[in-house]
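[step 3/7] fold_predict: job queued, chain A
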Amino acid sequence: MGDLGEGLSRYQKKGFCSFHTPGHKGRQEFFNGIDFLGYDLTELPGLDMLHSPQGIIAEAQKRSAEIFGAEETFFLINGGTVGNQAMFLTLENTAAKRVVVERSSHRSVMSALVLSGMMPDYVMPTIHPDFNLPLGLDLEKQQISWQVAAACHVTYPTYYGTGFELSQLLDERTRLGINTPILVDQAHGSHYLGLLFPPSALKLGADLVLHSSHKTLSSLTQSAMLHVQGNRVSRTRLRQSLELLQSSSPSYLLLASLERAGEFAQDFGRWECLQEEVAELHRKVGMSFRILSEKDVGTYGIHTVDWSKVLINTLKLGVPAPRCVEYLREGFGIEPELWDEENILFMLGIGNTPEDIRRLTKGLESLASFAHSVGFTESKGQVGNDRFKTLPLPHLILSPRDAFFAHKRQVPLKESLGHIVGETISPYPPGIPIVVMGEQMTHEILGMLLTAGEGRWQGWDGFENQTIWIVEEG
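[step 4/7] structure written:
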């Protein structure tokens, strides 16, 4: 076995308790009856074709549409990324070529801007001061350019499980009497069915809705669904876009797992048991940690909170989040989804069990007790996360597409002021771009990048040697 296989085997043997994607959590019960080697087939007679389905794939997609409340559903085998990209390629080529986009959108939305040539009109998220994260969107403070926009693309819910008032956005479209499509990245809300969770974007009336089914449901990683309703978006263009972007050799394992995920999604009893344990977790450790909860609804642009995303802030404990993660991993085998300097996100999926939640609760109780016993006294200023700040939006000189294909050169970061940036740079988490390719470098952005500390950065090729790509002008 090679290094990659050995690495996977070593990790699996550690027996970590998963609070991260994928949603199946490695449990075989979701794949009983699926012969992984035997089902790894190509488009043979009787097995239908993904890009022109008329048989078993068409029937599976039809059943999924019925389950999730869509008029039509497309199975995706290139992840949620291809769903966002296809949404943008499907848009009519309006004269303005503009689309309303959240600045906090997933990086696949930024790549969709490059592929489509659309110009973004950004709306800014609301930062929650207790978590220093973009958890809300206050529509009252946004100026949406409905009249020139080819579409409005929003994220619902966020990575952290919070949702803005999507119904207000849809009502505003109706009030204005316009036909602008509303596209929703519901990657982290594939499980929004029944009464235990917030309403789905489809139920609220969105036109295109993306589900990354592997994140919280039981399908295999890299599988997703794109749901459609209404006639504001051309389904012919959508099919053509998906055929253009997706593999011509689709994995039948991914397709079969998507069909199965829809069936398991209706097993609400699984979620009910988990909800009870999460409520107990809040009760037992809520005094030691700041935990995002229903109490946050109505504040900082937050309209809904998904209880299955357990977001805790460790400032009250006085311990940096990375040290807390280390304690939980080593002492309790708990593996979270992500963390920064002060927050940890534990993501539940349909494969979690009540025992998993009790293990997490026990680990957090032990962590709090340990921190108090050794007397951690680190101040908020020492522990806190200052890697995300709200900066004025820079001027967009070129479309992301034009900037991507332009001639570029790499220069010392300190010499980039006033130049057109040739790469998109985001601290992760939370993944909100500080600067997007095609934008002009400002004093504020340059100052933040020059003082950037260690951490994970997306898209910054020259972080180690403090260089940046700029567009050749003239």
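[step 5/7] annotate
Residues 400-471 form a domain with the Ornithine Decarboxylase; Chain A, domain 4 fold (CATH 3.90.100.10).
The chain has 15 helices and 21 strands.
exit 0
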